[in-house]
């Protein structure tokens, strides 16, 4: 493995969306020659009709295409697919375009003709970033699953703990004995696999992001909601 290649765990697939058949073929041949998996599409609509594989991905996206252009597509697609970095390629690029692309989260903006190594460096960086984001997303999902396993009372106590209330204060508010609150606190810490209040607070920050984007049914709300 050279310094420019992704680590084995970062290897995934490259998605090419470009309406130019010759460019799709050239990029496909380039990536295949390096033992990289590539899927090429002529339009964003064709790409969206394809089920995304469960692997790190990097999207190589042309800007000027019939129908929806690449910049508009990125702004719609990226917010719900942050784990898929975007590399732009274009034969008609300018500074405003590149600024818009980078502000929307693109990791590179290359103007045709570009150096193969520049593209490959961007691809390898994208695949590594995708692998890292997927790993973090899996961790957050695991924490949220633990939170969902808490009873409504345990979630309530957790919320009050994170708001700085002591066991005595929680007991008075909930009209419970202090020992009951302490037992509840110990149970929720065990279920959350938290070894300290600091760690529990960090978990709560992760949960908030998931809870805001997930449908709620009352008790499923995140801490502090």
From TrEMBL:
Domain HTH luxR-type residue range list: 143-208
InterPro entries for this protein: CheY-like_superfamily (IPR011006), Sig_transdc_resp-reg_C-effctor (IPR016032), Sig_transdc_resp-reg_receiver (IPR001789), Tscrpt_reg_LuxR_C (IPR000792), WH-like_DNA-bd_sf (IPR036388)
One BP term from GO: regulation of DNA-templated transcription
Domain of life the protein comes from: Bacteria
Short name of one Pfam family: GerE
GO MF: DNA binding
Positions of modified residues (4-aspartylphosphate): 62
Protein's recorded name: LuxR family two component transcriptional regulator
